[in-house]
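About this split. The held-out portion is used to measure sequence recovery: a designer receives only the structure tokens and must propose an amino acid at every position. Recovery is the fraction of positions where the proposal matches the reference. Here is one held-out target exactly as it appears in the evaluation file.
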């Protein structure tokens, strides 16, 4: 975050919310229920809203990201909003815009997945979502 607003941190892009950056639900509930629709962390990788607190996923090709995912899992995650793109998992939380992205063509989703497989893997275990 800069005085002009957020700028991209290219060295850490796609790694999701940094494991060592605390963002707790504890002090957010009152803000969400009184003044704000949602509250973002300074790095904009964590968000608290009516759904609780969610953390941007690591979508680099590391084992802590989507390194072990199949293309079919990726497509299912985006099309159906299923965490890990697997049956029986929890829904993917806001603000991940999968309800819009699900309209992408198979070709585009496959291209996205192929691209993500080419970027630098970053080891980063993103925190689990929290309830408010
Ligand atoms: C083309 C762009 C994007 C792709 C390919 C993408 C991909 C993904 C995937 C595959 C997941 C699920 C990871 C898992 O199940 O472990 C995910 C989760 C997430 N994404 Fe995205 N994403 C994109 C853009 C965005 C944007 C624009 C935002 C926020 C404004 C966002 C926020 C999140 C959050 C918060 C999660 C975690 C949700 C949860 O824990 O349930 N993503 N993303």
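Reference sequence for scoring:
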């Amino acid at each position: 975050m800069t005085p002009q607003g957020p700028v991209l941190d290219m060295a850490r892009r796609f790694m999701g919310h940094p494991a060592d950056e605390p963002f707790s639900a504890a002090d957010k509930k009152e803000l969400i229920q009184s003044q704000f629709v949602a509250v973002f962390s300074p790095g904009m990788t964590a968000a608290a809203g009516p759904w609780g607190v969610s953390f941007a996923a690591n979508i680099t090709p590391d084992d802590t990201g989507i390194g072990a995912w199949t293309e079919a899992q990726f497509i299912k995650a985006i099309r159906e909003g299923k965490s890990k793109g697997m049956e029986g998992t929890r829904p993917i939380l806001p603000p991940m815009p999968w309800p819009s992205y699900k309209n992408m063509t198979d070709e585009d989703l496959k291209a996205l997945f192929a691209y993500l497989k080419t970027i630098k893997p970053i080891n980063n275990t993103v925190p689990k979502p929290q309830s408010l």
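Annotator remark: Residues 54, 56-57, 59, 74, 77, 83-84, 92-93, 95-97, 112, 129 surround protoporphyrin IX containing FE (CB under 6 Å).
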